[in-house]
From TrEMBL, chain A:
Residues 66-145 form the S1 motif domain. This is CND01650-like protein. Residues 168-187 are annotated as: Disordered. It is found in: Nucleus, Nucleolus. GO terms for molecular function: RNA binding. It comes from the Eukaryota. The keyword Phosphoprotein does not apply.
From TrEMBL, chain B:
This is Exosome complex component RRP45. The keyword Transferase does not apply. One of its GO terms (molecular function) is exonuclease activity. It holds the Pfam family RNase_PH_C. PANTHER family: EXOSOME COMPLEX COMPONENT RRP45, EXOSOME COMPLEX EXONUCLEASE RIBOSOMAL RNA PROCESSING PROTEIN. It comes from Leucosporidium creatinivorum. Keywords: Cytoplasm, Exonuclease, Exosome, Hydrolase, Nuclease, Nucleus, RNA-binding, rRNA processing. Belongs to the RNase PH family. Gene3D superfamilies: GHMP Kinase, N-terminal domain (3.30.230.70). It comes from the Eukaryota.
Automatic annotation (TrEMBL), chain D:
Residues 1-10 have a biased composition (Basic and acidic residues). It comes from Leucosporidium creatinivorum. Residues 22-34 have a biased composition (Low complexity). This is mRNA transport regulator 3. It is found in: Cytoplasm; Nucleus. Pfam families: RNase_PH. GO terms for biological process: nuclear mRNA surveillance; poly(A)-dependent snoRNA 3'-end processing; rRNA catabolic process; rRNA processing; U4 snRNA 3'-end processing. Residues 43-173 form the Exoribonuclease phosphorolytic domain. One of its GO terms (cellular component) is cytoplasmic exosome (RNase complex). One of its GO terms (molecular function) is RNA binding. Residues 1-41 are annotated as: Disordered. Coiled coil: none annotated. Keywords: Cytoplasm, Exosome, Nucleus, RNA-binding, rRNA processing. Belongs to the RNase PH family.
TrEMBL record, chain E:
This is 3' exoribonuclease family, domain 1-domain-containing protein. Residues 276-289 have a biased composition (Acidic residues). Residues 12-160, 164-232 form the Exoribonuclease phosphorolytic domain. The lineage of its organism: Eukaryota, Fungi, Dikarya, Basidiomycota, Pucciniomycotina. One of its GO terms (biological process) is rRNA processing. Keywords: Exosome, Nucleus, rRNA processing. It comes from Leucosporidium creatinivorum. Its main location: nucleus. Pfam families: RNase_PH, RNase_PH_C. One of its GO terms (cellular component) is nuclear exosome (RNase complex). Belongs to the RNase PH family. GO terms for molecular function: RNA binding. It comes from the Eukaryota.
Length: 187, 282, 305, 261, 289
C-alpha cells in the first residue's frame, strides 16, 4: 500500500495538550513547539515511536561517517590512497566527492608495515567505510574490515581482470602473475 | 601549465663571467643584434621576421567599418598580440601574463602612439566609412627578445601592405579589386623600431638584443623605440637595477646607430620584394 | 568482453545487491553491452535495421510558446528539451554583401541543463554546437539571406536564433536544428521601411491587421545523429550512450530534395573496413544510415507541419 | 568583454533593436474589471507547475503563470570546491539567467547582468531561512534558474521563489517548509492594489510590495516594499498577498504530490 | 567561375613540409597546400595541471589560432574535430598524468576579402547569384585539412607514439565539377565542400587508408559524396607518399628538410605504398596485430 505523501512543513504529529508525546522526530522531520513537521517530501512512517519521512530512492546522498562507499583509486602516495567516489550506501553519487585512505586505515593488523603500493593501484575499484568528514578537501575512509578493500582491479601489464587468491594477493589469469592488493571479502 | 625553468647556477655563473670579459654565449659582442631575416609572403602585408631563432609572423589586413562618433575622420589601427603556447609552453592560451601585457603595451606605444600610421588617411567617408587596419602578430618561437622582433615585423608588414583603391562619389563608395586598380600603400610617417637592452648586476653591464637565457638572468631591461631620424618614440625601463643617467645615454647612442642599420635592412628588403611583386600586380 | 565477465564474477563477491543503477555507474560499458546483446537499448528502444520508427526517441514540437519572441519553438527529443527563440534587429548589411541580411545562431548550454556544465561563458561544447548549427543553417540556405534585406546596402534584418538547452540528454544538434527550422517556419517579419532622410528604419508592429511577412524558406535541413558502440549502430543516442560511443555520425538531409546538406563524422572509423572484407563495405552501411536518416526526417517533418 | 564575445557569434556591426512606428497599441481594460486581462484585483494568474523536467538534476521545476515562464534546477548536494574552507553547513549558490529572447529586445550582456545578479540575491535571501543546511556539512547546493519569458521582474521573482522551493524539495534538501512568493502593485487607476501584476500593469505602478513566505508555518522569509504607500494600505495588502500565497502553496503541494505518485 | 587553368581538377596544389622549425617546442611542422600553410607545434609529454590530469592517459590540449583576427567558436569546433581524430590514434595511455599540448597557427591563407570590386551605390548592385554557393560561409576546408596533416606530422616530429598516420585533404564541387584541394576562391564558389581524413597503419587502415573523418557542408547527392571520398582517398595516399619521402630525407644522411614541392598525379596508386609506420623513428610503435 502506498504510504501517504507528505511535503516539507506539513505537521505530522502534535501531542494532545497535557499529555506526554508518544512520538519522537526521526529522519526527514523536525520538531518545533512540540509539533513534529516533515522536512522532506516523501512517505511518512510511524514505527517504534519515531516519526520519519523517507525521500525518494534515487536521492543524491552525501557521505557521512559510517557510510559505505565505493570508489576508484585516482592517486597513491606513500602515506595514502586517494579515491574518487562512485556510490554512497549503494546509491550513485556525484563523481567529485573525494576520499582518502591513509596508510594506518588500510587494515586492522600490522598497521605500521602497510605499503600502499602493495594494497591499491590507480584504477582499482574499492569498497570502504567513511570514518570522518576529514579535511576541507576529502573524506577519510577506512578499509580495515574483511568486507572492505579492492573489489575489482586490472593488471597493469596485460590489462586483464585480476582474480582474488587471498586477502593480500590477486592473480592475473592470463599470465599467472601475482599482484598485491587489500582484497575485499564477501560481506 | 609548465612554468619557465630557472637556469642552473652553472649557467648563470658562466654567463656572468663571460659577460664581464665582454663575451656572450652565442659569440656576439655586447652591442650586437642577432641577424635579422625578413621573409615576405604571397599576400601583401605578410611578413616573417627572424631574430636569430626568435620568430614572429605578422599579417596586416584591412576592413571597412564605421568610425567612432567623436572621431569621424579617423580610421583604426588594431594590434593584436596574443602569445600562444607555440612560442613557449610557458605562455598559457587565453590568459595574458604580465610579461605579455607589457609587451603588448610597448608595441602599441611604438606603432600607434608614435603615429607611425596616419589614421586620418584611412578615412573614406567622414562619419560613415573608414579603414580599420588590423595587425595580427603571431609569436612562433621565443628565443628571447620577441618584442624587438615583433616591432620589426609589424612595421615592415605595415609598409608592405597595400589596401584596395577606393572611389567615392557622394556617399557611395566603390572599392576596386586588386586586379582592377593598383592597390594603395598606407601613409606611414616614420619607421619606429624597438631595441631592447638587458642589464646585468651592479656593474650596469648592458647587452643589446638579449637571448632567451640572457633575458631570464637579466636583472632588468630597457626598451628604446627609435626611428631612423634619430627620434626617440618610447623609452621604457621597467624595474630592475637603478641605472646612472650616463648609462642610459650611452645605450641610446648605440641604439641610434643600430636602428639605422635595421631601417636600411627593412628598406632594402622591401625594395627587393617590390621588384618581385610588381609582376604580380597587373 | 573481458570486462563484462568481470562484472558477473564481481557481483557475488561484491555487494549483496548490485542494483542496475549501481552496475551502470560502476561498469557503464558492460552495462550498455549487455543491453545491446539482448537487442534492446537501455531506454527500451529496439536495436536493428528492421525495427522501423521505434529506433528513434519521441520528438515533439511546440511552436510560438514564447510570446516575447517574434517566433519560437520548444523541442523535446526524448528527454532532451530545448527552446529556440528568435529576436530581430536591424543592421546595415556588410559592405561586401549589400544584398544580404544576417543570421546569428548561438547555442547556450546553461549549468541548469546538466551537471556537465558550469555557470559562466559558453562552454567549448556550446561553441562547437553554435558553429555546426551556423554551418548547417547557412550552407543549407534554408533562410535566404537576401530575403532579409530592407533596403540594399542600407538596412537589413538580423535574425538571432538563440537556442537554450533545458535538459541535456544527447542529440542536441538534431534538436537544435529542428528548433531553429521550426522557429524560422513560423517567423513573420514586420513591414519595415528605411527612411533615407534619417537613415533609420521604422517597423509596423505585428497585429491582427498587419500580420507581417512570412519568409519563403528553401528546403529544410533535418539533422539525424547516430552513435557507434562495439559495432552497433545506435540511432539518436542518449547522453549516456553518446559518452560511450567511439564514433558519431551526423547526417543532415533536405526536406524535399534528395540532397544531403551536412555529413560529419570523426573518430574511430564508422565501420571497420575488414568487417565484410569488401571495398566499400563501410559505404553500404553509410548508405543505410542515410536511408534511415531520410525516413527519420520524414517523421520530423510531420511533427513540424 | 572581448573574452565573452569570442565564445559566441556576435551581432553584426551597427545592429540596433527594431523601432516601431506607433506604440499606442495598448489594449484597454475590459469594462467589468480594472485589469488588462480581466482579473479581479486580488486574483493571481493561473499557475502551471511541473517538477522533474531536467533529468540529471537532483530536483527541477518549471512554472508558468500567465506569460511568465521559467525553469529552475537544483544540483547537489555536492562537495564544495577544494578552495573553499571547511563549513559545517551547506552553501546555497543561486544563479538567475535571462534567455536572450525573454524580454522583447535581445537580452545579451556578456559577463554579469545586474538585473540577474539582484534577482539571484533576492532569491537566495527568500530561500535561505527555509532550509536546514546544518544537515549537509561541507557541501554545496547549486540552484540555477533560467527565465524563458519575462513579464516584469517582480512577477518573475515571485514565480521563481515558488519554483525554486519546489525544486529544492524535489531534490530532497531538508527544509522547514515550502516557500512561495507573490507580489502586489499599487496603481493610480485602481483603488485596490493589484496582485501578481503583469509587466504592463507594473509600468504604471507607484509602489510595489513583494513577499516570500512559508504558508505551512505562517512565517515570512523575505519582504520588500518600494515606492510610497501608507502603512494601513500596506498592512491590508500584505494580508491579501499572504492569502494568495496560501493558494499558490496549494498548487506547489499538488505538483510535489503528483510527481511522487 | 572559370575552370581551373593552372592544374587539373583532380590535382593537388604543390605540397610543402618542413619539420623541427621551432626551437622551444618539442616538435613542430609546417605543412602547406599551395599558399595555405599551417604551423603545428607540440610540447610534451610535460607537466599537467592537477585539474586536467588524467590518471590513465595523457591530456591532449589543442589550441587552434587563425591568421587574421581572434579565435572564435569556429576555432573551438576545429579543435574538437582535431581532438576526435587524433585521440584514437595517439597512444595516450603511454603518457599517463602528463600533458600533450598541440598548438596550430595558420601561417598563410590568401584573403578573398577584396578580390572582386563592389560598390555601395544602388545602381551597381548585382543580383544574388542564382545557384546557391557557400559564399556566406568563410572558406575553411583546405585550412582544416592542412591543420590535420600538420598536427600529425608535429606528433611524429616530437616522437609521440601513434598507431598510424592521419592524412587529410579537402574536396569541393564547383559548378558540378569535382575539384581536389580547392583554393579559397573555389571554396567560396562551391556548392559543397568536404574534408576527408584517412588513417593509415596496421589495424587502422593499412596501406589503403580508412576514412576516419568526414566534414561536409553544402548541398550534394549521396553519389557525389562517395565520388569525393574516392578522390580524397587516392589523394591522401599520394600525400602520404610525399610525407614519407620528405621524412625519409629528413632522417636520412642529408638532414636538412627537403624543399619539397611535388605535384603528385592523382592517378598515383597504391602499388608503391608500403606500411607507413615503419618510417621515422622507432617510437611510431605499432599496436599488436
Amino acid at each position: 500500500m502506498a504510504a501517504q505523501v507528505v511535503i516539507p512543513g506539513q505537521p505530522l504529529y502534535t501531542p494532545p495538550t497535557g499529555s506526554v508525546a508518544s512520538f519522537r522526530a526521526g529522519t526527514g522531520t523536525y520538531a518545533r513547539g512540540g509539533t513534529i513537521y516533515a522536512s522532506l517530501r516523501g512517505s511518512c512512517s510511524r514505527e517504534g515511536g519515531i516519526i520519519s519521512v523517507l525521500g525518494k530512492d534515487d536521492q543524491q546522498s552525501i557521505p557521512e561517517p559510517n557510510s559505505t562507499v565505493i570508489g576508484t583509486i585516482t592517486r597513491i602516495t606513500r602515506q595514502a590512497a586517494t579515491l574518487s567516489l562512485l556510490t554512497v550506501d549503494g546509491k550513485p553519487c556525484r563523481p567529485d566527492f573525494v576520499g582518502v585512505i591513509r596508510a594506518q586505515d588500510v587494515r586492522q593488523t600490522a598497521k605500521d608495515s602497510v605499503k600502499i603500493w602493495s594494497c591499491f593501484r590507480p584504477g582499482d575499484v574499492v569498497r570502504a567505510k567513511v570514518i570522518s568528514l576529514g579535511d576541507s578537501r576529502s573524506y577519510f575512509l577506512s578499509t580495515a574490515q574483511n568486507s572492505l578493500g579492492v573489489l575489482f582491479a586490472v593488471s597493469g601489464t596485460t590489462g586483464a581482470t585480476l582474480e582474488a587468491v587471498s586477502w593480500e594477493e590477486m592473480r592475473d589469469p592470463s599470465s599467472g602473475e601475482l599482484e598485491g592488493r587489500k582484497v575485499a571479502g564477501p560481506e | 601549465m609548465p612554468r619557465e625553468v630557472d637556469p642552473s647556477i652553472n649557467e648563470s655563473e658562466f654567463l656572468h663571467k663571460a659577460l664581464q670579459q665582454g663575451l656572450r654565449t652565442d659569440g656576439r659582442s655586447v652591442y650586437d643584434m642577432r641577424d635579422v631575416k625578413l621573409t615576405f609572403g604571397d599576400e601583401l602585408g605578410w611578413v616573417e621576421c627572424r631574430l636569430g631563432e626568435t620568430r614572429v609572423v605578422v599579417q596586416v589586413s584591412g576592413e571597412i567599418v564605421k568610425p567612432l562618433a567623436d572621431r569621424p575622420y579617423e580610421g583604426f589601427l588594431v594590434i593584436s598580440t596574443e602569445i600562444s603556447p607555440m612560442a613557449s609552453s610557458a605562455y598559457e592560451a587565453g590568459r595574458a601574463s604580465d610579461e605579455e601585457v607589457l609587451m603588448a603595451r610597448l608595441l602599441e606605444k611604438a606603432l600607434r602612439r608614435s603615429e607611425a600610421v596616419d589614421r586620418e588617411a584611412l578615412c573614406i567617408v567622414a562619419g560613415q566609412k573608414v579603414w580599420s587596419i588590423r595587425v595580427d602578430v603571431h609569436f612562433l618561437d621565443d628565443e628571447g627578445n620577441m618584442l624587438d622582433c615583433a616591432s620589426i615585423a609589424a612595421i615592415t608588414a605595415l609598409r608592405h601592405f597595400r589596401r584596395p583603391d577606393v572611389t567615392v562619389i557622394g556617399e557611395d563608395v566603390t572599392i576596386h579589386s586588386m586586379a582592377e586598380h593598383v592597390p594603395v600603400p598606407l601613409a606611414i610617417h616614420h619607421t619606429p623600431i624597438c631595441l631592447t637592452f638587458a642589464f646585468f648586476g651592479d656593474d650596469s653591464l648592458a647587452v643589446l638584443d638579449p637571448s632567451h637565457l640572457e633575458s631570464l638572468l637579466a636583472s632588468g631591461t630597457l626598451t628604446l623605440t627609435l626611428n631612423s631620424q634619430q627620434e626617440i618614440c618610447v623609452l621604457s625601463k621597467a624595474g630592475g637595477v637603478p641605472l646612472p643617467a650616463d648609462d642610459i645615454m650611452k645605450v641610446i647612442q648605440i641604439g641610434v646607430q643600430r636602428v639605422k642599420e635595421v631601417d636600411a635592412l627593412i628598406k632594402s628588403s622591401l625594395e627587393m620584394e617590390a621588384k618581385k611583386t610588381v609582376v604580380e600586380v597587373r | 568482453m573481458a570486462q563484462s565477465t568481470t562484472a558477473s564474477t564481481e557481483a557475488p563477491a561484491g555487494t549483496s545487491a548490485l542494483t542496475p543503477a549501481l552496475f551502470k555507474r560502476l561498469h557503464p560499458r558492460p552495462y550498455l553491452d549487455r543491453f545491446l546483446q539482448e537487442g534492446v537499448r537501455p531506454d527500451g528502444r529496439p536495436l536493428g535495421a528492421d525495427a522501423g520508427e521505434a529506433v528513434w526517441r519521441d520528438a515533439s514540437v511546440n511552436i510560438g510558446s514564447i510570446s516575447t519572441a517574434p517566433s519560437s519553438a520548444l523541442i523535446r527529443l526524448g528527454n532532451t528539451t530545448l527552446v529556440c527563440g528568435i529576436t530581430l534587429e536591424i543592421a546595415p548589411p556588410d559592405i561586401t554583401t549589400p544584398n544580404q541580411g544576417f543570421i546569428v545562431p548561438n547555442v547556450d548550454l546553461p549549468a541548469l541543463c546538466s551537471p556537465l556544465f558550469r555557470p559562466g561563458p559558453p562552454s567549448d561544447e556550446a561553441q562547437v554546437l553554435s558553429t555546426r548549427l551556423r554551418d548547417i543553417l547557412i550552407a543549407s540556405n534554408v533562410l535566404p539571406l537576401a530575403s532579409l534585406i530592407i533596403e540594399p546596402a542600407k538596412a537589413a534584418f538580423v535574425v538571432y536564433l538563440d537556442v537554450v538547452c533545458l535538459n541535456f540528454d544527447g542529440g542536441i544538434l538534431d534538436a537544435a536544428v529542428l528548433a531553429c527550422v521550426g522557429a524560422l517556419k513560423n517567423l513573420r517579419l514586420p513591414k519595415a521601411t528605411w527612411d533615407p532622410d534619417t537613415g533609420a528604419t521604422l517597423c509596423e508592429p505585428i497585429s491582427e491587421k498587419a500580420q507581417g511577412e512570412s519568409i519563403p524558406l528553401n528546403p529544410l535541413p533535418l539533422s539525424v545523429t547516430f552513435g557507434i558502440f562495439n559495432g552497433h549502430l545506435l540511432p539518436d543516442p542518449t547522453l549516456f550512450e553518446s559518452t560511450l560511443c567511439t564514433s558519431h555520425i551526423t547526417i543532415v538531409v533536405s526536406s524535399t530534395t534528395s540532397k544531403l546538406l551536412h555529413v560529419y563524422q570523426a573518430g574511430a572509423p564508422l565501420f571497420s573496413a575488414g568487417a565484410d572484407g569488401v571495398e566499400g563495405g563501410g559505404r553500404e552501411q553509410l548508405k543505410a544510415c542515410i536511408a534511415l536518416a531520410r525516413s527519420r526526417a520524414k517523421g520530423l517533418l510531420e511533427i513540424l507541419a | 568583454m572581448q573574452q565573452a564575445d569570442r565564445r559566441r557569434f556576435g551581432a553584426p556591426e551597427g545592429a540596433v533593436p527594431l523601432r516601431f512606428a506607433s506604440t499606442s497599441s495598448s489594449a484597454k481594460p475590459s469594462s467589468s474589471s480594472s485589469r488588462l486581462d480581466g482579473r479581479a484585483p486580488e486574483q493571481v494568474r493561473p499557475i502551471f507547475l511541473q517538477t522533474g523536467l531536467v533529468g540529471e538534476a537532483s530536483g527541477s521545476a518549471y512554472i508558468e503563470t500567465g506569460r511568465t515562464k521559467l525553469i529552475c534546477a537544483v544540483y547537489g548536494p555536492k562537495p564544495t570546491p577544494p578552495s573553499a574552507p571547511f563549513n559545517a553547513k551547506a552553501r546555497l549558490n543561486v544563479e538567475v539567467k535571462f534567455a536572450p529572447f525573454s524580454s522583447g529586445v535581445r537580452r545579451f550582456t556578456p559577463g554579469k547582468d545586474t538585473e540577474s545578479a539582484s534577482l539571484s540575491a533576492t532569491l537566495q535571501q527568500s530561500l535561505l531561512p527555509s532550509l536546514i543546511l546544518e544537515a549537509l556539512p561541507k557541501s554545496q547546493i547549486d540552484l540555477f534558474l533560467t527565465i524563458l519569458e519575462s513579464d516584469g521582474s517582480d512577477a518573475d521573482i515571485s514565480a521563481g521563489v515558488t519554483a525554486a522551493s519546489v525544486a529544492l524539495a524535489e531534490a530532497g534538501v531538508q527544509m522547514y517548509g515550502l516557500v512561495v512568493g507573490c507580489c502586489a502593485a499599487f496603481v493610480p487607476s485602481s483603488p485596490l492594489p493589484l496582485l501578481d501584476p503583469t509587466r504592463a500593469e507594473a509600468k504604471t505602478a507607484t509602489a510595489f510590495a513583494s513577499l516570500a513566505c512559508m504558508p505551512a508555518l505562517g512565517t515570512i522569509t523575505n519582504v520588500g516594499v518600494s515606492g510610497v504607500v501608507s502603512v494601513e494600505q500596506l498592512d491590508e495588502t500584505l494580508q491579501k498577498v499572504v492569502q494568495a500565497c496560501g493558494q499558490i502553496h496549494g498548487v506547489a503541494k499538488g505538483a510535489l504530490e503528483v510527481e511522487s505518485a | 567561375m572559370a575552370p581551373r587553368t593552372d592544374r587539373s581538377p583532380t590535382a593537388l596544389r604543390p605540397l610543402a613540409l618542413s619539420q623541427s622549425l621551432l626551437a622551444r617546442a618539442d616538435g613542430s611542422t609546417k605543412f602547406s597546400f599551395g599558399n595555405v600553410s599551417v604551423m603545428a607545434s607540440i610540447t610534451g609529454p610535460t607537466e599537467v595541471r592537477i585539474r586536467e590530469e588524467l590518471v590513465d592517459k595523457a591530456t591532449l590540449e589543442i589550441n587552434v589560432r587563425p591568421l587574421r583576427g581572434l579565435a572564435g567558436p569556429s576555432h573551438k569546433a576545429a579543435e574538437t574535430l582535431l581532438t576526435s581524430l587524433l585521440a584514437p590514434l595517439i597512444l595516450l595511455h603511454l603518457y599517463p598524468r602528463s600533458l600533450l599540448q598541440l598548438t596550430l597557427q595558420t601561417l598563410s591563407s590568401s584573403s578573398t576579402a577584396f578580390s572582386t570590386a563592389f560598390s555601395t551605390s544602388p545602381s551597381s548592385l548585382t543580383p544574388s547569384p542564382s545557384t546557391v554557393t557557400l559564399q556566406s560561409l568563410p572558406p575553411s576546408s583546405a585550412e582544416s585539412a592542412a591543420r590535420i596533416n600538420a598536427s600529425m606530422l608535429a606528433l611524429v616530429d616530437a616522437g609521440v607514439a601513434c598507431k598510424g598516420m592521419l592524412v587529410a585533404v579537402a574536396v569541393a564541387f564547383v559548378e558540378g565539377e569535382l575539384r581536389l584541394d580547392p583554393t579559397q576562391r573555389e571554396e567560396e564558389m562551391a556548392t559543397s565542400r568536404h574534408v576527408f581524413a584517412f588513417s593509415f597503419g596496421v589495424d587502422v587502415g593499412g596501406t589503403e587508408g580508412e576514412c576516419v573523418g568526414v566534414d561536409s557542408v553544402g548541398q550534394f547527392e549521396v553519389d557525389e559524396l562517395f565520388e569525393a571520398q574516392s578522390l580524397a582517398q587516392t589523394a591522401t595516399q599520394a600525400i602520404l607518399a610525399f610525407i614519407r619521402k620528405s621524412i625519409e630525407t629528413r632522417y636520412g644522411a642529408t638532414g636538412a628538410p627537403p624543399p619539397a614541392a611535388v605535384k603528385p598525379a592523382p592517378a598515383m596508386k597504391e602499388e608503391k605504398m608500403e606500411l607507413p609506420e615503419e618510417e621515422s623513428e622507432g617510437d611510431e610503435s605499432m599496436d599488436d596485430a
